[in-house]
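Predict structure. Chain length: 315.
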Amino acid sequence: MQGNNRITQLFGIEKPIIQAGMIWCSGWKLAAAVSKAGGLGVIGAGSMYPDVLKEHLTKLKASTSKPFAVNLPLLYPDIEKHVQSCIDFQVPIVITSAGSPKTWTKTLQEQGIIVVHVVSSSVFALKSQEAGVDAVIAEGFEAGGHNGREETTTICLIPKVRDVLHIPLIAAGGIGCGRSMLAAMALGADAVQIGSRFVASIESSASQAFKEKVLEAKEGDTKLMMKDITPVRLLKNEFYQKVESAENNCLTKEARLELLGRGRAKLGMFEGDMIEGELEIGQVSANFQELKPAAEIVEEIWNQFLEEKERLIRL
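Prediction complete.
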């Protein structure tokens, strides 16, 4: 597909499937597996100390020569060190999020790095294009982890963003199979970013307990919480119930921040505490029943995409 798809051409990949850079779940093993399978593997640097990111970059580059990316949340306290590591390790693609795309885009592009920015609205998509990014990821309300306050669903967001952009567009949020990938492409996307499905992969760095919890998820088992602090979609557990109770009882923002504390996401997703940990996952997790290798997931999504595309052509 590389010959006629703007994202596969831009990234130098075979399939327009991008693995999301999820904190605590997207280490070098997952990124390498997805890249080897023809998609774009992504290291999620938001949960990594600078030396840890360097370790993951070293192992990833030793594992494959395929293109890959690093996700950089711009609110990361040592962002300058992460940017320098991306430059030093000649990372081909950087995906920025949670901040202004103007801050680092030019610096990275001057080093030959392709820059993609994550947005949750057409307004910020247009600002990203004006900032000079090479592509935009538009993420709908269904997505796991930190989310847009607008609560715009992917099916509403993608056509709106497509209307204001001339650069390549990647759809994210609620996509976990070939059928939803085809739907996103029909709405105007050039590619898709998939997170939750790759959490439930063999190579994911998530804890085994979290992976099993994701596979057990049913419809309605996730909810967007803490909207006035930092909107995040959580899988329901005891910690979620505490957050919900705090919000229902109108606790102050300060009190809820104290409840959140530090390291909650690491505690749950990485260390496996399913009671007190913060469990970030998307609505689409209700559709997964089996832990699979990342390469098998990529192939399964791609083949279903092609099959559904042919089915629609026959219609």
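Summary: DSSP finds 14 helices and eleven strands in the chain.
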